[in-house]
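Below is how a single chain appears once it has passed through the pipeline. First comes the sequence as given, then the structure the pipeline wrote out for it. We keep one example in the README because the format questions we get most often are answered faster by looking than by reading.
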Amino acid sequence: MIKLGADRIPHLHDDLLSHSIRVSGLLYNYGRPMDEVKAGLFHSIYGNEFQMYKINVSREEIQSVIGERSEHIVNLFNTLIDRVDTILYARGLDEPDKTTLRWLEYCNIKDHDPEADILKEFELLLKVDG
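Resulting structure:
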């Protein structure tokens, strides 16, 4: 992530690297599978509808670092249209991606805004005790 400059990309309150480490840590603390924890670390590496930066890195390069399943999660997370609602309401998503993306988005939002009302909806679906 540092080689890609993630520590120099502004991301809400600080930088992409710091945010990504926290998201990955949340996933780890919730006991999520290692594929999800690794995806959390790279979850916004490609940029998305909320993050308009462009990092010069290929999917193959990311796969070589975090594995095929984790990169698949990252790519989905970055390419979904109307991402939060698509994930929350599982529009066009099947298992295991549906639950994996819900956990990733939940931890992403929780890091950005721990008081966000939408977290309650994710907590109900994921059976999280706040």
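Residues 23 and 91 are 23 Å apart (CA to CA).

See the next section for the split statistics.
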